[in-house]
Design a protein that fits this description.
Elements: E1 3-7, E2 10-13, E3 18-25, E4 31-39, E5 45-50, E6 56-58, E7 66-71, E8 76-81, E9 90-98, E10 101-104, E11 108-113
Parallel strand pairs: 2-11
Antiparallel strand pairs: 1-3, 3-8, 4-5, 4-9, 5-6, 7-8, 9-10, 9-11
Length: 114
Amino acid sequence: QVQLVESGGGLVPAGGSLRLSCAASGRIRNINNMSWYRQTPGPRRLVALITSAGTTNYADSVKGRSTISRDNAKNTVYLQMNSLKPEDTAVYYCNAVIDGRLYWGQGTQVTVSS
């Protein structure tokens, strides 16, 4: 059974930083794209994506303030977020394409106070 488990969320003042982690576990042969999404009331929206080759893509709303990275040896993807704003408040979800299937984590709450 493959699982994704996020960590690193919490309450942070505006201007602060957080680093989210998402670790994949279980019987895994290959991980392709890994991504972070966020959700306020409404649909989940892509925050950042990283391919297996390390190519990255960011939503305009976080570009220049966030960095996605991955450690393939640990099957883990990270999202470093700096200069946080109240509008970054959301539940953050990671997903990953593992052996051809898409998996989601359970989400971690990020709250940015003004």
